[in-house]
Amino acid sequence: MRDIPGAWRRTAAGAGLLSPSGEVAPTIFAEMSAAAARTGAINLGQGFPDEDGPAEVLEAARAAIADGVNQYPPGRGIPDLLTAISEHQHRFYGLEVDPQREVIVTAGATEALTATLLALVGSPDDEVVVFEPYYDSYAAAVALAGARLRTVPLRLPDFQPDLDALADAVTDRTRIILVNDPHNPTGAVFGADVQAEIVRLAHAHDAVIVTDEVYEHLVFDDVHRPIATLPGAADRTLTISSAGKTFSVTGWKIGWVHGPADLITAVLTVKQFLTYVNGAPFQPAVAVGLRLPDAFFADAARVMQNKQALLARGLEAAGFDVIAPRGGYFTVADASALGGHDSAAFCRALPERAGVVAIPLSAFVSPENAGEYAGLVRFAACKRVDVLEEALRRLDAAF
Questions:
Q1: Residues 28 and 162 in one domain
Q2: How many angstroms separate the Cα of 152 from the Cα of each of 9, 177, 254?
Q3: Quick one: CA torsion of 322, 328, 329, 331, rounded to 10 degrees?
Q4: What is the largest CA-CA distance in the chain?
Q5: Looking at residue 6, what is its pLDDT?
Q6: 210-245 pLDDT, tens per residue?
Q7: How far apart are CA 208 and CA 230, in angstroms?
Q8: For a tag site, which of 35, 64, 164, 389 has the least CB within 10 Å?
Q9: Which CATH number do you get for residue 233?
Q10: Distance separating alpha carbons of residues 250 and 236, to the nearest angstrom
Q11: ∠ CA 158-160-161 to the nearest 5 degrees?
Q12: What is the CATH number of the domain that holds 301?
């Protein structure tokens, strides 16, 4: 077998892709899902729903398969979905997006993000600024692109960044400021002051803003405001989203990225050598979903907010200190009062102790910063109400 280059091995190890022994490192999600299967625990770790999406969207996929939409679609995506994405961005946010030149359909938001990083960074001196905790694929994609990861901490009580720390992190070496809003894993929604500072810094240092907005329709007590809508932002922002979270079809892996045509062309150049194309019969179905009435999107946010409230009440009753989310699938809770000062050890013991799986927040931070988030645990609310109630009953009995 050909040796893996040492430089790549060091980079991959630093990003958590390889274990100290050089083997492929399993993610905490795989580990905890295996624990759920082994013990029969309720999996509140991974963020996938246990209910299907809207019937008209599912039926559109069945119809597409029956109608023969089963071969390679166009490289950018089927024209109707590109148009639907453009319509959606104008309908909800007032953004003008050219569906022929400024949109690409991808294999989920993760491919959109990875293709973007591979397209726009390429030097060891290039830096990508992210907010920490961060979705675990960010560090891996930055490592694969050969760039450096710079982090800006999100701290309690509301997981907002310190603007001075953000300004210190963004320099002339910054190629990309990567923004996840609404934020996974914390459930935070960034304030207008944070968004404005991101745009200011991007202009000051000639950086590209890349936004991961997959929870855009799951914002509570407010409406989502894409950074691309801010003055001066659209011409340097790539906006990423997907169908998985909005329509409860995470297994379809239909995402998209839109932005200035020259940047989109660069991303497409990389994307064509990753998946090339994807999900032909699901693309027309997602177009149907994006055109659903406003009431569907409002109801999706209301239902998720109610589940989050149910989860928060139950966790507090069991002895956790809960940090209320403002959007998304997840609730963060402090397990310190229950002896969970080491959240990773706490979560590894939880399936046997309580019959429930959760994810330590330390899984979403750089190893050197894990201590700042000790005791914090992430629970997924995107499950049926009866499943949440049973999980909370188990936690209450265990603690």
A1: no
A2: 26, 11, 29
A3: -10
A4: 57
A5: 45
A6: 999 999 999 999 999 999 999 999 999 999 999 999
A7: 14
A8: 164
A9: 3.40.640.10
A10: 28
A11: 150
A12: 3.90.1150.10
